[in-house]
């Protein structure tokens, strides 16, 4: 268990030590947190939808740019939708680009009530190079705040699919990113996707 007592003043240090075990393979580990709209936010529940292909096209382009900038660790939180599609693309690119993949879940109970199809997707988040859980289970909202703080303080950048004109609960996390000094956020927006659509032909 990653954190045995969330009330302990040492819990944050315990997280950080475990994270450094994950990054100790190299002298410089440049990591990108992957976040974005959920499938529910987008109303996209069929992975064969042409819009998913468009999003994946954007993801591949942007992950190539991240690799060019020296990013070698991609950190996920286990959310279905943009994160899952990014995970699929990253797995396809892993051998050629040298990506290492990590999932840092908020709770051990994450996704426990999902249906069978979504449980299969959840299992893909667990079949990566590094997997840890912040807490055994949800008890109070302060856990989520500290979890988000940890993610921001232990990644160098965030690849974020989010548009301020289409707000969701991600707006709180996005505000934390903007408030954190020297933290770089690379956003994918609906305008970016519209540009891709103009040159995208349905296969």
Walkthrough of the structure:
The chain has 203 residues and is an alpha/beta fold. It is 46% helix and 17% strand. The protein has one domain (30-198): 3-Layer(aba) Sandwich (Rossmann fold). It has helices at residues 11-23, 39-42, 50-68, 82-97, 116-125, 141-153, 170-179, 190-198, and strands spanning 31-36, 73-76, 100-107, 130-135, 157-161, 184-188. α3 packs across α4 and α3 (50-68) crosses α8. Residues 1-15 and 23-28 have low confidence and may be disordered. Pfam families: YpsA.
TL;DR of this structure?
This protein is an alpha/beta fold and 203 residues long. It is built from 8 helices and 6 strands; from the N terminus they run αβααβαβαβαβαβα.
| Mean of residue pLDDT values | 87
Low-pLDDT runs of 5+ residues are 1-15, 23-28
Give the overall form.
Answer: globular
- Please identify, by name, the CATH architecture: 3-Layer(aba) Sandwich
Rg over CA atoms, rounded to whole Å, is 17 Å
Strand line-up in the sheet with most strands: 4-3-2-1-5-6
Number of helices: 8
CATH level 3 topology: Rossmann fold
Helix content: 40-55%
Decide which structural class fits the backbone.
Answer: alpha/beta
Number of domains: 1
Given this structure, which CATH class is correct? Answer: Alpha Beta
The total strand number stands at: 6
Largest sheet, in brief, is: 6 strands, parallel
Distance between the termini: 45 Å
Series of H and E elements: HEHHEHEHEHEHEH
What proportion strand?
Answer: 15-25%
């Amino acid at each position: 268990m990653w954190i045995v007592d969330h009330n302990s003043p040492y819990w944050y240090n315990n997280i950080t030590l475990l994270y450094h075990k994950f990054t100790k393979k190299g002298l410089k580990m440049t990591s990108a947190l992957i976040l974005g709209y959920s499938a529910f936010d987008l109303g996209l529940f069929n992975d064969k939808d042409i819009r998913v292909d468009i999003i994946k096209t954007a993801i591949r382009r942007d992950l190539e740019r991240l690799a060019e900038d020296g990013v070698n660790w991609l950190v996920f939180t286990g959310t279905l939708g943009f994160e899952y599609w990014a995970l699929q693309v990253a797995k396809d690119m892993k051998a050629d680009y040298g990506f290492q993949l990590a999932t840092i879940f908020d709770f051990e109970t994450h996704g426990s009530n999902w249906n069978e199809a979504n449980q299969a997707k959840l299992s893909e988040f667990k079949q990566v190079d590094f997997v840890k859980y912040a807490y055994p289970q949800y008890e109070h909202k302060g856990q989520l705040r500290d979890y988000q703080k940890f993610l921001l303080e232990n990644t160098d950048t965030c690849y974020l699919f989010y548009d301020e004109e289409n707000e969701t609960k991600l707006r709180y996390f996005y505000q934390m990113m903007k408030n954190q000094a020297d933290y770089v956020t690379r956003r994918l927006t609906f305008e970016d996707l519209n540009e891709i659509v103009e040159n995208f032909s349905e296969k």
